[in-house]
Every structure is written in C-alpha cells, then in structure tokens.
C-alpha cells in the first residue's frame, strides 16, 4: 500500500529526466512541439474562459448578463456595492476564515500526532488500527451525518460553527495516511540519536519530526482549508443564523435572495461568486509550490 | 507540545460527555409555552426567515412595528423560503421566532407539528379573523385551527403586449386562454425565432409554476378536498395535453423555459420593454413591477376567463407562522398582527404613492389577503391615473375584477408532496419525455401514498 | 512485525501470549496509544458511535420533532420500492460510469501533452488547468447554471460556432444529466496534476529501450506509460469514483437550493446524496435517510472492493516480479 507518499516539496526540473523523441529531425520536432503547445493552449483557454466570463458577467447590467460578450458593453462596478450593501458579505468572509483556520490547524496538529504514533512506535494492535484508519476513508460522510447532527444537538451546539471544525480535533484518516508516509521516509537514525541524547517521545515528535515535515504539514493545512472553504452540506445543516454563515452558505443565500428565489439579478450572484473565489485563488498562488506538489504526491507511489 | 496535549485533554472530555448522549432528541417544549403570557408586552428580539425586504411595502410595515415597539429587536434574515433551512432549525429545537411560508404548505407543516396553532394568539391579542378573505383562511386553517396569518393575495391575470400584438394584426381580445384553437394560433403567430434562438415568446403561460391554474381555467380544479386529489382525472390529462400543444406550437417547453431564464423579469430590460413576449399569464404583482420599471410600456391587463366567458381565478398567498418551540411568542404574535393590519398596509401604500408620485409614475394598488386593508387602500388612498397613466387604472380594475371569488387549494397535509408530484409530471409531459396519462397517474399514486402515510 | 525494530533491548524468545502481554507493559506502547488517542476517541465518537446510531435509526421512524418509533425493516422495504431511489441511483451510477472514465481519459491526454511540452510552459499550463478546481463548488454550480442555458448559454454559443444546435442542458430532462457531466469536466485539474507528476517520474530509458524494440508512440504509451503510472491511475480512479457516488454541492445549488430552482430540473438531476439529504433534513425522515445512508455505504464498499480486486491485477508496482 504505497500509493501515497509525500516528498519534501520542490519543483522538479521537468526537462531533466526526459529526452526528446529520437528518430525525428530537429525541424519536425519543432513543428511537433509547436503543434502540441497550440493544442494545449487552446484547451487551457477553454478552461479559463468560464472564469473570465464569470468576472465579466459580474460587471454587466442585468439584461446583458447573457450576451456572451467578454468585455461588458456597460461596466457596472456598483453590482459589487449593492451586493455588499444587501448582505453581510464581510462577516461571511470572516466566518469562513475563522472556520477554515480552526479546521486546518486542528486537523494538521491532530493528524500529525496520530501519524507519528503509527509511524514511529511498534506496539500491539498497530496493524489492526491502521487498517481501521484506511477503512474509514471509504465511509461516506452521509452515514454519520444524521447521528453527528444529533450529538451536536445534544451538546446544544447544533446551531453554532463548532460542528464545522470540531471533529478535526480527532484527526482525519486521509491526512493520517498522508503524514504517516512522510514520517516513515525520515531516517530512523535521526530519532535514535536524539533518544540517546535523552530526548523524550514528545520531544522527538515536536522538535524533530514536525520541523522535518513542514512541507507536508503545509499541504495538509491548505487541503483542509480549501475543503472547509467550499463545504456546503455542513453549513446547510448547522447554520440557520445569517450572522454565522460561511461563504458557501452565504453564496447560496445570495442565490436564494437575488437569483432564482429573488428577482433574477444574476449579475449580483456572479459578483458574490467572484468575491468567494478570489481568496482561494490568492491562496493558491501564494502556496502554489506546495499545493501542486502536494496534490501530485497524493497519487504517486513510492 | 503544550497545544496538542490541551487538545488531547479536550478531546477526551468531549468524548466522555458524548457517550452519554448519542441518539437523544428530547421532547421538551410542547405548545404550552404559548399560553399564559401571550398578552405580555412585546419585548426581547425576534428573527424571521423566508421574508425579504425588496421594496417599501415590506420595509414600511416592518418599520411600523419597530416604531410601535422600539425596544424589540427585529432581525429579518432575508431570502426566499427554504424548507430545508426551516425544518432543520425546528429539528434542532432552536428555531427562529417567525417563519414566512407559502400558503399551500401551511397544512403540511401543521400536520407534522412543525408550526404552532395560533388560536390562542389570535384570541389573546385580538386578531380579527373576519377581516381576512375567507378563501385565504381556508388555506391557512387546518383541522379546525388557524396556523398562519396570510399577507398578500396573488391571482393570475393576462398581461398583453399591445405593440407586439399590433404587429401581428391581433388585439388583446383575440387572446383567449380557455379556447385552445385560437390560443395555439395566436401563440404560433406571435412567436419569433431566429433559427433555434428565441427573440420572442408568443404567449407565455408561466409553466410549470402556474400549471394547476389551468385546471381551474378548464373547470377542473385538481384538488376537490383536503383528501381528494384529481391528478389522474381525464380532464386533468386533457388540460396537460393542451398545455403541451401550446408550448409545442411555440417551439417546445424546454427551449421556452431556457429563454425565460435569461429574462430580466424585474428590471428595466424586462420582456415587455424588450418585446420578448406577446402576452403573459402572471400574478397581479407584475403589474406593479411594470408600472414602476417600465411606465411607458403599452400593455393591456385582462382577467382570465373560462370556457363560458366567466372570470376564473386561482389565489395563492404567503403567510406568517410560529415554528414549534419558538421563543417569545407574544412578540411574534403581535408582529404578525401589526404586519397584516389595515393601518399598516395603508401606511405602506401611502409611502408607495408618495414615491410613485415623485417619479410621475402610477400607483397600481396593493393586493392583500386582508379585505379590510384593501378596502381602505382602494377606498381612501387610491386615485385613478389620468392621461398617460390612464392605462394603469384600467389594469387595476382588471386585477380587481380577476380577484373576485378565487379558488384556492384546500389546506391539506400533503401540500409539499402534491406540489412535487404535479411538478414532476408537468415537467415530463411538457418536455415530451412521458405521456400525460401515465405521468399523471404516477403523480396521483405518489399523492395517495403520501396521504396514506399521513394516515 | 518483529521485536527487532523496537527501542527496547531484544528480549529472549517467549511464547506468543507472553510476548503480547509483555508488549503491553512497555512504556512505548502506552506512549503510542497516547499519540493515537485523538484518532481513537474520534473514531469512537464520530465514526463508530454514529455508525451504530444510524443503523439503529434506520429501523425507526424519526422526525426529531416527535419521538422515534421502531418500525422494523420498513425503511429498507420502502427503499427497495421507492421509484425515486431508483431514479437517484440510476442518475448517480450513470454519472459515475461516464464521468470517471471520461474525466480520467481527458486528464491523462492533457497530462501526456503537458509532459511533451515540459519546462516552464508545462508549469504554466498546469496552473491554468488547476484554477477551476479552486472555484468554490457552490460558485461552480451557479456559474454553470448560466453557462449551460440552452438559449443564450456560453456552452451552446460555443457549439454554435461549429454549427451544432445545442440542447436545453438545464431544462430538458433528457439532457440535464449530460449538462452536469460537462460541468464536472471543468474541475479535473487535480487529476491532471496527479497524472502529470506520475508521468514525470517515468524513467526516460524505458522509452529508449522500447524504441529500440521498434515500438511506436501508441505501443510506448500502452506498454511503458500506462504500466508505469498505473499506481496513480488506480488512485485517481478510486478517489474519483467515491467522490462521484457522493456528488452533492454543485447539483444541489443548481436544482434543489430553493423552491424556484426546483421548478425546472425534475428528477433527472436527482442524485443519491441529494435525495438522502432532502429526506433527512428537508422532510425530516431521519430514519429513512439513515437507511438510505447505509444503502450508499454498501454500494461504495462493493464498488471500491471490486476496483481494488481488479486493480491488484493491473497495477504494476516497482520491484514486483509478477
């Protein structure tokens, strides 16, 4: 079971392991590469176009949203101000930030703790427990959705933001799996040397293992932040008070109030979509190095 | 290391307390909390869901309540009614104080205990039920109790675009919704397409939203009583088949729906201003929208008539209700009373008149479930438009004529399932994926199954 | 697992049982369980407990507002007879069967092309392909509701360029599912990135050797590329399948979010988890929804196990001599 392994993240120079196809003259090779680049560029344009369309639609007057013209004939930045006047978008943004950070911090720390337990120690029941961890990855969230709701209700927390992240205190199977692979790749001698120097297990984890796997921790953090940022089903279940909404829930409220449920002001809905998307794109560019490598290593076998 | 250790300790405590509580779900809080203090002075805070503040008619009324009770904090969570949001909040035992729901679902929510009976509230706070239109009361009364207080009174009318009709050599009188042959001919003649792209819908019947209304037009309402649904009636099948024929004559329902989805129905680029429609069946509130956004459009508004030339109407309404286990019921009760009182409606109408006058636009009335309020508005405040605005007065008279004696869906415990069933059948029939008879038979089965489940 | 990796001095040979008991007494074991405590607690409280609770609930009629009553296997019987379950299952499986192979084929093709380009360009395009995956799923749903409009949507406008008269993707029950599949292809960036990374790891000398054997491009792809990235392929197939079977957010946003949006889609957009969610949290049929959840669990389990079994046959692991 070595499908997933994280390596210290760094861009690998793409060219160094490949060689151009032999048996082709340089001229043909250039033509061929040009052809491939053009094809990929066309597909890339197709992928980007809807995002540009989204931004463009958010700046159009209501009756031009569907005109499929990329540069708005009339630019209406006031779409954004009317959105911000009508709904507490900044509050939702703040809520998403808080929930996202809580979810990501707790899951990163707890998963690392558990992963280290599995990776470093030899103890009875280890294989069985790890098999259980893997098994829970296959469990659809829907199975536990209703009883979990009842549990939070029992605590009187079913209408707060706590259920959106609190389960992350208990680690998440996928990240445990990911981080365990990483810890296993660390040379065991490092730990043994520290042990000889009188370092305790807690010290091994916190002072040696954690710093060494910072890239992997960042990947886990970003993954979970993104998952939390786009989650709709939990906010639908737990958040009924507008002041507590996260962005996806708020976006749905905007759709209900301005879109189909309201006066079909799609330009406002599009503006809200743009505002909900931008922070993630910014995060993506800031952490791109780790992010792309992190995703790539999800599927790489060691 | 300190942090994970704290987390560990927290986790352990949470787990220990959780084990005692799985599978709970308490039954505390019955209707009892409603009695006793219902006469108390409004205080504290109330929050509503399902209601929005799109215009002065909404804001003035909320402000009226706020002025009467400045100490009460009123939070309006704006947005259309979301059944999932509402029921989940009820099930978490901590619902909002008030909910604004579609009238045809009151019976269903009452039957399952999601909303409280208001009889005591009505009695203790002196809400005069006689002022409401009796047919709307049918909508909100279930099993001998009143469960909701209705607000608007919505009835479909025919809005004709004279510019478009004149181009085709037709006049408003040529559009007869009950006469299939002329309807299909007019629809076909008025529709304009460029290849497969629409430029204009001939006659927009607003399907599937208004589908059951055409059962009323054809003299065959789909619900005869709270437990008597007639979706598989041959007359219902005939209605659906003729609706499909009208849509097909204009190029097919799904394409029409797609075209409709691109409209700016409420804005300056509305389908009448842009001549995207020849005639439209739509509720009377749209006349108010047009009078405001496109005062210069050339339209004629007509009541809709049945085969015998008689006016036929279907009324819907939205209504205020108090969720089960809601707090602060005395204040909520007072809020419902104030929101729907004749004086409040009149204050809202006055504000609208002021705004429209300022713009030189016509005031086209407000249409509520409170007959006393409507009497007040049309008796004391409304003045017929003159000159350019004469046509809007004609429209108002047509709306008032259309409102008489409207049919409503009798309050029933399976309102949601009924709607889901006819909607599904209508979508399939109109799109041509299933024939009318079998789709409606399936729909009828679903409703009867739901009725049986309710018991 | 043997004792020699332990940090404790190697003990003299003991019987199995005694070794076990001795292992439990070691401080290392206690420390290990301390580290594992968060997960163990979480497993008990948020996985095992709820699983049992949901199994119990699935034999009851429970709407949260009123007390639960035991109804035996009624919910499961209803599930088998419910035509909407059949519709939802059909839609979900159809979506999975089409989305998974199609998205992976397209992602693989793009990854291969990226690999051909190499260098900075590849990095740039990889970023571009990944951008849509950063769009919040609710926004994706809203956006495609407009893009897929049959009359003036961007998708049909694009098809129109090629002289194709596109269908009504969001209103025609016959086409709604295909519209959803189109939408799902927009967010395959993650899969592209994974497969691209796997391709970069294929040693170039393997292609060299294949070429010397006279293998053409297609044979190289089949005999070198596919086996060498089979681990990653297997991973994305499993992950995408599980995710597809649980499709929710985009479709819920488009067709089930409010009373108005429910007017047009009809059952052709009904996915299994959407039906389950509505039964549980809209109609408050918590018992029935729990039964539906267990139904989904069984389906996911069976599908995944079948895939793992099949995967064992074709996945090539380095150092494997099978």
UniProtKB/TrEMBL annotation, chain C:
Keyword set includes Cell membrane: yes
Name used for this protein in its record: Sugar ABC transporter permease
Coiled coil: none
GO biological process entries: transmembrane transport
Transcription is among the record's keywords: no
SUPFAM superfamilies: MalF N-terminal region-like (SSF160964), MetI-like (SSF161098)
Family note: Belongs to the binding-protein-dependent transport system permease family.
Native organism taxonomy: Bacteria, Bacillati, Actinomycetota, Actinomycetes, Jiangellales
Subcellular location: Cell membrane
InterPro entries per the UniProt record, alphabetical: ABC_transporter_permease (IPR051393), MetI-like (IPR000515), MetI-like_sf (IPR035906)
Positions of transmembrane segments: 31-53, 93-115, 127-148, 175-199, 228-248, 286-306
ABC transmembrane type-1 domain: residues covered: 89-307
GO cellular component: plasma membrane
């Amino acid at each position: 079971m070595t499908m997933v392994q994280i390596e210290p993240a760094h861009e690998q120079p793409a060219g160094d392991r490949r060689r151009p196809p032999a048996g082709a003259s340089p001229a043909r090779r250039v033509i061929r590469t040009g052809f491939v680049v053009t094809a990929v560029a066309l597909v890339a344009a197709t992928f980007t176009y809807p995002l540009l369309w989204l931004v463009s639609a958010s700046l159009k007057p209501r009756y031009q949203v569907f005109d499929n013209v990329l540069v708005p004939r009339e630019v209406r930045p006031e779409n954004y101000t009317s959105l911000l006047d009508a709904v507490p978008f900044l509050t939702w943004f703040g809520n998403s930030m808080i929930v996202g950070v809580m979810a990501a911090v707790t899951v990163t720390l707890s998963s690392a703790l558990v992963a280290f337990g599995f990776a470093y120690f030899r103890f009875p029941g280890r294989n069985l427990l790890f098999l259980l961890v893997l098994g829970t990855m296959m469990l659809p969230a829907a199975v536990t959705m209703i009883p979990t709701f009842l549990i939070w209700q029992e605590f009187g927390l079913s209408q707060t933001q706590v259920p959106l992240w609190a389960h992350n205190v208990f680690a998440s199977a996928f990240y445990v799996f990911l981080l365990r692979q990483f810890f296993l790749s660390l040379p065991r001698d490092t730990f043994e040397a520290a042990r000889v120097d009188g370092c305790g297990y807690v010290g091994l984890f916190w002072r040696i293992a954690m710093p060494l796997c910072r890239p992997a921790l960042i990947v886990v953090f970003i993954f979970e932040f993104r998952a939390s940022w786009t989650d709709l089903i939990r906010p639908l279940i737990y958040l009924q008070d507008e002041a507590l909404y996260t962005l996806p829930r708020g976006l749905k409220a905007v759709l209900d109030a301005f879109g189909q449920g309201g006066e079909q002001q799609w330009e406002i809905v599009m503006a809200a979509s743009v505002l909900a998307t931008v922070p993630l794109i910014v995060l993506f560019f800031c952490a791109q190095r780790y992010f792309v490598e992190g995703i790539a290593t999800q599927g790489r076998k060691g | 290391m300190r942090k994970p250790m704290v987390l560990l300790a927290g986790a352990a405590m949470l787990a220990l307390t959780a084990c005692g509580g799985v599978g709970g779900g308490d039954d505390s809080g019955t209707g009892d909390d409603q009695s006793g203090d219902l006469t108390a002075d409004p205080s504290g805070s109330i929050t509503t869901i399902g209601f929005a503040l799109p215009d002065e008619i909404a804001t003035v009324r909320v402000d009226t309540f706020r002025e009467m009770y400045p100490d009460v904090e009123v939070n309006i969570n704006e947005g259309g009614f979301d059944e999932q949001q509402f029921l989940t909040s009820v099930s978490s035992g901590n619902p909002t104080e008030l909910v604004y729901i579609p009238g045809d679902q009151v019976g269903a929510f009452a039957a399952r205990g999601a909303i409280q009976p208001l009889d005591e509230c009505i009695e203790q706070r002196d809400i005069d039920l006689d002022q409401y239109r009796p047919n709307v009361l049918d909508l909100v009364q279930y099993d001998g109790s009143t469960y909701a207080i209705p607000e608007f009174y919505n009835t479909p009318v025919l809005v004709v675009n004279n510019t478009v009709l004149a181009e085709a050599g037709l006049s408003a009188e040529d559009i007869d919704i009950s006469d299939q042959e002329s309807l299909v001919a007019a629809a076909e003649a008025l529709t304009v397409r460029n290849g497969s792209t629409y430029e204009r819908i001939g006659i927009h019947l607003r399907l599937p939203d208004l589908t059951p209304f055409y059962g009323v037009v054809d003299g065959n309402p789909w619900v005869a009583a709270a437990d008597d649904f007639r979706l598989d009636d041959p007359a219902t099948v005939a209605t659906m088949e003729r609706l499909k024929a009208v849509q097909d004559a204009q190029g097919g329902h799904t394409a029409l729906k797609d075209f409709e989805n691109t409209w700016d129905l409420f804005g300056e680029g509305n389908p009448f201003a842009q001549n995207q429609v020849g005639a439209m069946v739509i509720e009377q509130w749209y006349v108010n929208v047009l009078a405001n956004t496109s005062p210069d459009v050339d339209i004629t508004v007509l009541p809709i008539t049945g085969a015998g030339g008689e006016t036929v109407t279907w009324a819907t309404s939205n209504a205020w209700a108090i969720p089960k286990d809601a707090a602060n019921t005395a204040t909520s009760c007072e809020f419902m009373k104030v929101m729907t009182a004749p004086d409040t409606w009149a204050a809202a109408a006055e504000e609208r008149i002021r705004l429209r006058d300022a713009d030189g636009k016509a005031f086209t009335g407000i249409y509520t479930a409170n007959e006393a309020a409507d009497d007040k508005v049309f008796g004391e405040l409304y003045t017929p438009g003159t000159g350019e605005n004469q046509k809007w007065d004609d429209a108002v008279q047509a709306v008032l004529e259309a409102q008489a004696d409207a049919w409503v869906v009798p309050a029933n415990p399976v309102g949601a399932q009924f709607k889901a069933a006819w909607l599904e059948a209508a979508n399939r029939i109109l799109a041509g994926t299933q024939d009318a008879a079998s789709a409606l038979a399936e729909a009828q089965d679903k409703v009867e199954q739901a009725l049986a489940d309710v018991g | 697992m043997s004792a020699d990796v332990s940090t404790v001095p190697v003990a003299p040979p003991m019987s199995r049982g005694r070794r076990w008991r001795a292992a439990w007494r070691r401080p290392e074991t206690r420390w290990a369980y301390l580290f594992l405590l968060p997960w163990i607690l979480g497993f008990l409280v948020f996985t095992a407990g709820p699983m049992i609770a949901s199994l119990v609930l699935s034999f009851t009629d429970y709407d949260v507002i009123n007390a639960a009553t035991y109804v035996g296997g009624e919910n499961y019987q209803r599930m088998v007879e419910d035509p909407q379950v059949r519709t939802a299952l059909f839609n979900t499986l159809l979506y999975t069967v089409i989305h998974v192979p199609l998205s992976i084929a397209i992602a693989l093709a793009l990854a291969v092309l990226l690999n051909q380009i190499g260098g900075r360009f590849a990095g740039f395009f990889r970023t571009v392909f990944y951008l849509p995956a950063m769009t919040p799923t609710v926004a994706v749903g809203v956006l495609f509701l407009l893009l897929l409009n049959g009359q003036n949507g961007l998708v049909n406008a694009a098809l129109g360029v090629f002289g194709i008269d596109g269908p009504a993707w969001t209103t025609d029950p016959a086409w709604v599912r295909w519209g959803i599949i189109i939408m799902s292809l927009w967010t395959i960036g993650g899969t592209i990135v994974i497969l691209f990374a796997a391709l970069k790891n294929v040693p170039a000398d393997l292609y060299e050797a294949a070429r010397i054997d006279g293998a053409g491009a297609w044979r190289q792809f089949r005999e070198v590329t596919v086996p060498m990235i089979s681990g990653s392929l297997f991973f994305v197939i499993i992950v995408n399948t599980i995710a597809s079977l649980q499709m929710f957010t985009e479709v819920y946003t488009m067709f089930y979010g409010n009373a108005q949006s429910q007017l047009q889609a009809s059952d052709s957009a009904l996915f299994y988890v959407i039906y389950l969610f509505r039964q549980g949290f809209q109609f408050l049929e918590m018992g029935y929804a729990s039964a539906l959840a267990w139904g989904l669990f069984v389906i996911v389990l069976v599908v995944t196990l079948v895939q793992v079994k099949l995967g064992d046959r074709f996945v090539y692991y380095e150092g494997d001599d099978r």
